[in-house]
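Protocol step 4 of 6: structure prediction from sequence.
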Amino acid sequence: MNAFSSDANAAFRAALAVADDVDPAGRFRAILHLLRCCGAHRLESITQLGVQALLPHLGASSAEDAGREFDPATGIAKDGAEAWKLDDEAVEELRLYLKRRRRRVVMRMELRDDVWIARAICAGGIATRSLRASDRTAARTELEVVKPVLARAARARDSGLLFPMDYRNAHVSAAQVRLWINRAVGRQASAQTRARCAQALATHKTSARRSRVRRGRI
């Protein structure tokens, strides 16, 4: 199942080869799989999806998200209308992403009024706590103690967005996704990234051609 031509799909495969370098949180990789299956014209809708939108399709408990209906038999349906069909590879990647999304916690420290503050971010949820120290070394020591508590608090405030930005109640924008694509396979890609993409592109084109031969299309 694929919404793109073989050449366009090859470009997606090339981007997937470096997706985790571009976005270590795994959002870019998951978005690429949704775009690959559902079409680039759905980019805006994909970035705004809630976690509940995927649960039925991934074999979890069924749910409704903002009045939309989701059919686990056909994929993700928008407003009870046209289905977004995902292939097995996309489903597996999204399952892995959902696990990664809840496990990845970003810890930051910032100085406010001569006192260090800790900030934990997980799945779009944020938790902050004073480290009760003006000395950076002492603050880091305290941070190691409160890390588990902060991580749990941030996770409990999950934004519910499938692809959250680092701050709460904001999803990854379509512009950000385009920027990631440009960094992966566009003009902003590094020489090393371009080399990795070239290898992925060539490999995929070969496999795609063999697949078409087996199906009698060439």
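Step 5 (inspection) to follow. Residues 191-214 form the longest helix (24 residues).
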